[in-house]
Amino acid sequence: MLYEIQSLLDEHADLQKQLADPAVHADQGKARKLGRRYSELNGIVEAYKRVGALTDDLEAAREMALEDPEFAAEVPELEKQLTEANERLRHLLIPRDPDDGRNVILEVKGGEGGDEASLFAADLLRMYTRYAESKGWKTEMISSNMTDVGGYKDVQVAIKTSSTDPADGVWAHFKYEGGVHRVQRVPATESQGRIHTSAAGVLVFPEVDEPEEIEISQNDLKIDVYRSSGPGGQSVNTTDSAVRITHLPTGIVVAMQNEKSQIQNREAAMRVLRARLLAWQQEQIDAENAEKRHSQVKTMDRSERIRTYNFPENRIADHRTGYKAYNLDAVLNGDLEAVIQSAIDVDEKHRLEQLGQEEN
What we know:
Elements: H1 2-19, H2 28-65, H3 69-72, H4 75-92, E1 104-110, H5 115-134, E2 138-146, E3 152-160, H6 170-174, E4 179-185, E5 196-206, E6 221-226, E7 242-247, E8 252-256, H7 262-288, E9 305-310, E10 315-318, E11 324-325, H8 328-332, H9 337-359
Parallel strand pairs: 4-9
Antiparallel strand pairs: 1-3, 1-5, 2-3, 4-5, 6-7, 7-8, 9-10, 10-11
Helix pairs in contact: 1-2, 2-4
Domain Prokaryotic-type class I peptide chain release factors: 227-243
Family: Belongs to the prokaryotic/mitochondrial release factor family.
Keywords: Cytoplasm, Methylation, Protein biosynthesis
């Protein structure tokens, strides 16, 4: 453990030198990547210094306690603080997801349930944008496909932060949202007052900092153009401005039609494609290491739901973490912190257990 800490301290000092070099900032993508890592190591360095300072204070208090009883009274409190500081340092040494500091592209799709599912997708989008606002993050609509009733067949938004600290990163919080979200409520169109169950799917991808970060050969792309349409298939454009890009090696397909310009739609589609490819590449690495990501479910099957939103009981329940609360109205208004924190806690507990096994 001491060797690992020293290597991290050395890396922190090296990053400090690199970030002080103006030439590094000429490459904004590289600078952001180095900045994220530097911010992550800052916490470890400060925690390590805190442990060192408390260790020195405790040793001094024990020595002086032999001559002065007043110092003896300080020993138990210093011991408690040192134990807490060591636990915090050990916690910070848990290997982080390298994408934690990234911004994200979030997709919400109406699933089973027709119009009601599309309306629930709109509710989820509102929940996420309000949560982002509460964190001081910015949201940017990339594309949307609305229904006649004002819901969404599918919608994509980018969520961004100016912080370089991975602990405050958008991906660090939103990566647990991927999966099938189930809602139980009485639809506005239900005349008999019966409770219906429908679902919406959420996908979250870490966004690529710079286009050059993900190499895409033009020979690997199949690009189709067509006329965009509005709710119900009504044509809203008389030119072939909509774009569909298929990445042939992976089969990933991205379609974009929000912008009036074919060039703008192509740029937006490539932005989303790069994010999906970054996630795909990480999944391949995880598969090779036998460490599959379990945080996201990419199908729309109800049996693979991660969360249930029960309106009659005002209940929110996360099926992965066991979290349950009766403040659904507040959660849908953006008060999502406790729900997400439950996922973070379970994930960190699992990684802490793995770290303990490696140490043994």
